[in-house]
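Key result, reporting period 2: structure in, sequence out.
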């Protein structure tokens, strides 16, 4: 048995097989975990074989959409969705401070809460 020694050829054919599998109904195995903390929440996404450049995070009003697209290197017009998840964010999330980080093969979206949202506040009574 003779092994193919051209690594670039192997990389291209593996990418094509992955793309055809996705187009043929296959999906990328993804795992989503949401952890809630006192100061915010974190969404962790693990998607096998998905590069950091393929992830997209879109915020529209209070909807956060996470998705990934597999692009064909030879034909940039040809792309296939790998996964898509939409989350409705609660009102205590500070939409202006959301951040996304990709590290160690996972996407982490940090959802900080507004400062002091859970602290009681005394309301002054006005006299008229």
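The corresponding designed sequence is given below.
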């Amino acid at each position: 048995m003779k092994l193919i020694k051209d690594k670039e050829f192997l990389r291209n054919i593996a990418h094509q097989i992955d793309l055809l599998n996705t187009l043929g109904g296959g999906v990328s195995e993804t795992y989503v975990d949401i952890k809630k903390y006192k100061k915010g929440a974190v969404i962790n996404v693990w998607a096998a074989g998905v590069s950091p450049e393929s992830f997209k995070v879109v915020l529209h009003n209070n909807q956060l959409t996470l998705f990934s697209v597999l692009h064909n290197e030879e034909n940039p017009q040809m792309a296939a969705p790998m996964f898509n998840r939409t989350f409705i964010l609660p009102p205590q999330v500070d939409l202006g401070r959301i951040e996304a980080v990709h590290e160690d093969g996972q996407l982490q979206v940090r959802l900080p809460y507004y400062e002091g949202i859970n602290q009681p506040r005394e309301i002054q009574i006005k006299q008229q």
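The mean pLDDT is 80. The chain has one helix and seven strands. This case is discussed further under Risks and Mitigation.
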